[in-house]
Amino acid sequence: MKTTIVGKQMNVSEDLKELVTKKLSKFDKFFREGAEAFVTFNRRHGEECLEVTISANGTLFRAEKKSETFRNALDECIESIERQIRKNKTRLEKRLREGAFEPAEGEPPAPDVEEERELIIRTKSFRIKPMTPEDAVLQMNLLDHEFFVFIDSVTENTCVVYRRHDGNYGLIVPEV
Known about the structure:
The chain folds into two domains: about 1-90, 2-Layer Sandwich (Double Stranded RNA Binding Domain); about 130-170, Sigma 54 modulation/S30EA ribosomal protein, C-terminal domain (SHC Adaptor Protein, 2-Layer Sandwich), CATH 3.30.505.50. About 25% of the residues lie in helices and about 30% in strands. It has helices spanning about 15-25, 70-85, 90, 135-145; strands at about 1-5, 35-45, 45-55, 60-65, 130, 145-150, 160-165, 170. The strands form two sheets. The protein has a four-stranded mixed sheet with strand order 1-2-3-4, covered by helices on one side. Helix 1 runs parallel beside helix 2 (about 70-85). The longest helix is centred in the middle third of the chain and has 18 residues, at about 70-85.
């Protein structure tokens, strides 16, 4: 797996880079060639923040954890991504490497994790109208929603604004 390691407003030490590469190699059994991992180190409000995103065969796996040390945050991210994979194993088997869920020789079988059932319990339809991202944020806040889908009045793309954990807003724009 190709691994890209970035430090936001900080330098990442070589031993941390080696540790990340070693820990992420655990996922090689799940992914075919061409999988990429992006690891971002950051210090926010006195906490060590680590974000791991793995892109494999068009599917994204992501975990973001805060801890006292980057090593603890890395362990938590690895556990979180592995839990995501195991929880959705039936749906992922076609996309992941053949035999990814069979234990290797001498490896203990993975603990059973209750698989997630289909969660779509309601379908909503509504008219989407062109607006600016600022208007979409206003509408989202008026509705007290966490996200809002709209058509950008300038680009005519379908976009999404959302409220981030830090209280700011994000904008999702499709790649064309």
